[in-house]
From TrEMBL, chain A:
Keyword Acetylation: no
Pfam families linked to this entry: CDC50
Locations listed in the record: Membrane
Keyword entries, A-Z: Membrane, Transmembrane, Transmembrane helix
Record protein name field: ALA-interacting subunit
Naturally occurring in which organism (per UniProt): Miscanthus lutarioriparius
Main location: membrane
GO cellular component: a single term: Golgi apparatus
Transmembrane segments: 50-73, 307-330
Region (Disordered): 1-22
Family: Belongs to the CDC50/LEM3 family.
From TrEMBL, chain B:
Coiled coil stretches, renumbered: none
Organism phylogeny: Eukaryota, Viridiplantae, Streptophyta, Embryophyta, Tracheophyta
Domain P-type ATPase C-terminal residue range list: 47-298
Transmembrane regions listed in the UniProt entry: 75-96, 111-131, 164-187, 199-222, 229-248, 268-288
Compartment(s) of residence: Membrane
Full protein name: P-type ATPase C-terminal domain-containing protein
Keyword Transmembrane among record annotations: yes
Length: 383, 311
């Protein structure tokens, strides 16, 4: 490593050396601000003023955002109804698994929901599952994107174990566990005599519909095996129009998740009774899962989420800290503002190592040592 | 000479520095922990055997007091910060595993993870390690006792290393649980759509990149155009990468296809929660820094403050 200290154009060198360098042919490298690390810079120092202003600004920004978010969350009306326990007939509550797997028992279930506040259209219908790990690695892997996109790649079923091929080796389209476990409960809504139709178009993301699921890919050999995991698919409808499948295959992040089932374009009034005729087909009993039906409105912020209201707690905390620091600043200011100015003049001398440094005091009353006692300050001879 | 050096080294277990300019000093220079060779009248043998080479004896003062102080501080800070940023990132993955049945499902798209240390957080660390300065060279020469910081191992003590790691853990906890609660389970946009695995990944990752880079901005004390460029540039690179990667066909980009442009960017919830989570994650360090530099200043803090004209 060479020439760490080669460019001593500032600081530390005496007059004789500088004079000598001018006479000799010097090999000093060319001065540049970059190599001498003297680029123009701002050197922020944490002073009480900075602290107070930063906290105050953060508080002033956060509190209104938090309040606005809380108000938006309060505007959202949500009706949640857990139905997996309630929809099991009373004579089979001991053996729910037998109930759900028995195809002869009717799975139709009637639920009544009461609207707690006025709900403006569009009202979103979700199904919420609990304890369903769509984010398990083996599950997430179990799909073949090439097959979903392209009809010619129907034979590509790698990574789809165990739902790759049928017993005679025919490829399953769409293959994999994610598609196989497609949710198959259905919901029908009526209010009195009025049928509230559910619009099931445009519930999936546009990029999925147009680019990930092909317009010419049709389901084949789907749910043909002995073990049925979920819904069957109409083999005449291409995958890009099977929106329930597309929504389901966008895997969720956590074991508790909601997926969009459809939208209702009717206004609901407070105290309306909505009758839901649902088909309780999906087996969540074998793994202790829960099923819920959710009707919700949405605001500019999305659904009902109080968490952003947390922002205004953080903002309030910041304002409180700003006030606390202001109080501390004013109570101590007598000590250091005067002395800090003195220390700036005394701490720095233009010639190095001269004596005459007064007792520099910085900070909130904490003293530094007296530089007059340093050995090189006792004999102020300079260099 | 090397026997003496070895004796001092072994008996006192201290770091030794040897200076020499001639061929007879080569042994001593190699034996010492740090060898400083002077090039000049006695030839280049000492230079070739040394760790540092200078041209004149008087440059030693600057080497030790200025560059020694700067380099010690930079390297210690860089190592601590490196641990911090990787812990912040890595632990979000661990917390996610608790909710994914410990099945080793990564919370982010594979290429996000690959590029973390390469593109989004590498340059700012280099800027910290190469350019950071707490006091100017003049102050370093005028206050030689700053050099004692290195001798007393102030910047690389175990308490410092562990507190940076603790900071990383706290940041990762705030980021993970913040993203979780902000984005899931309800709709994230006005059109009623919910966030899946991909949106959570993008949100968490953005928070990590912002937090880690802003933490660096809070730490360093010397802002040239280079520091601004690399810190804010790294954040910009992340968003640019996200957009460009999302444009590749789904065969390559898988879960990241269009995720930012279509799903995240139009959602106010995404931006507000990023803002909130990043600021909340930085508050603990900021409060610590305030209490440290204003109420319990160490020697170098006081020198740094006296150096500035702001009081």
């Amino acid at each position: 490593m060479n020439s760490h200290a080669a460019g001593t154009s500032n600081g530390g060198s005496g007059d004789a050396a500088a004079g000598g360098a001018a006479r000799r042919n010097t090999r000093m490298p060319k001065y540049s601000k970059f190599t001498q690390q003297e680029l123009p810079a701002c050197k922020p120092i944490l002073t009480p003023k900075w602290v107070v202003s930063v906290f105050f600004i953060v508080g002033v920004i956060f509190v209104p955002i938090g309040v606005v978010s809380l108000l938006a969350a309060r505007d959202v009306v949500e009706i949640i109804d857990r139905y997996d326990e309630a929809c099991v007939p009373s004579n089979m509550t001991e053996n729910k698994l037998a109930y759900i797997q028995n195809e002869t028992i009717s799975k139709e279930c009637i639920r009544n929901l009461t609207v707690t506040k006025d709900m403006k259209q569009p009202i979103f219908v979700y199904y919420e599952l609990d304890n369903f790990y769509q984010n398990h690695r083996r599950y997430v892997k179990s799909r073949n994107d090439a097959q979903l996109r392209d009809a010619s790649k129907a034979n590509q079923t790698s990574a789809c174990e165990p739902e790759k091929t049928t017993a005679n080796g025919q490829p399953i389209v769409p293959c994999g566990l994610i598609a196989w476990s497609l949710f198959n409960d259905t919901y029908n809504f009526t209010r009195g005599n009025e049928n509230l139709t559910v619009d099931k178009k445009d519930i999936s993301w546009k990029s999925d519909r147009e680019h990930k699921f092909g317009k010419d890919v049709y389901p084949s050999n789907f749910q043909n095996g002995a073990l049925k995991g979920g819904a069957t698919l109409n083999p005449k409808i291409p995958l890009s129009e099977q929106e329930d499948l597309i929504v389901w295959m966008r895997t969720a992040a956590l074991p508790t998740f909601r997926k969009l089932y459809g939208r209702i374009y009717f206004d609901l009034k407070e105290n309306d009774t909505i009758t839901v005729r649902l088909n309780n087909n999906y087996n969540t009993y074998s793994f202790g899962g829960k099923k819920r039906l959710v009707l919700s409105t949405a605001t500019w912020l999305g659904g009902k989420n109080d968490f952003l209201g947390f922002m205004h707690i953080v903002g309030g905390l910041c304002i409180f800290l700003a006030f606390a620091f202001t109080l501390l600043y004013f109570s101590k200011t007598k000590d250091f503002s005067v002395l800090a100015k003195a220390s700036v003049y005394h701490y720095f001398s233009l010639t190095p190592y001269t004596s005459g440094n007064a007792n520099p005091i910085c900070g909130f009353g904490r003293k530094l040592g007296d530089h007059n006692y340093l050995s090189w300050n006792r004999h102020p001879a300079g260099r | 000479m090397e026997a003496v050096t070895r004796l001092v080294k072994i008996r006192t277990s201290k770091t030794t520095l040897a200076i020499g300019d001639g061929a007879n000093d080569v042994g001593m220079l190699q034996e010492a922990d740090i060898g400083v060779g002077i090039s000049g009248a006695e030839g280049m043998q000492a230079v070739m055997a040394s760790d540092f080479a200078i041209a004149q004896f008087r440059f030693l003062e600057r080497l030790l007091l200025v560059h020694g102080h700067w380099c010690y501080r930079r390297i210690a800070a860089m190592i601590c910060y490196f641990f911090f940023k990787n812990i912040t990132f890595g632990f979000t993955l661990f917390w996610f595993e608790a909710h994914a049945m410990f099945s080793a499902q990564p919370a982010y798209n594979d290429w996000f993870i690959s590029f973390y240390s390469v593109a989004f957080t590498s340059l700012p660390v280099i800027a910290l390690g190469v350019f950071d300065k707490d006091v100017s060279s003049r102050v370093c020469l005028e206050v030689p006792s700053l050099h004692q910081d290195g001798v007393n191992n102030v910047f690389f003590s175990w308490s410092r290393i562990l507190s940076w790691m603790l900071n990383g853990m706290c940041c990762s906890i705030i980021i993970y649980f913040g993203s979780l609660n902000a984005i899931l389970v309800q709709a994230v946009r006005q059109d009623g759509r919910v966030a899946g695995f991909d949106i959570l990944g993008v949100t968490m990752y953005s928070c990590v990149v912002w937090t880690v880079n802003c933490q660096l901005a809070l730490y360093i004390s010397y802002f040239t155009w280079i520091q601004h460029f690399v810190i804010w540039g790294s954040i910009l690179i992340w968003y640019t990468f996200l957009v460009i990667y999302g444009l590749f066909s789904p065969a390559i980009s898988a879960t990241a296809y269009h995720v930012f442009v279509e799903a995240c960017a139009p959602s106010p919830l995404y931006w507000l929660s990023t803002l909130m989570i990043v600021v909340t994650a930085l508050i603990p360090f900021f409060v610590y820094k305030i209490s440290r530099t204003l109420y319990y200043p160490q020697y170098h803090d006081q020198v740094q403050r006296a150096n500035s004209k702001n009081w």
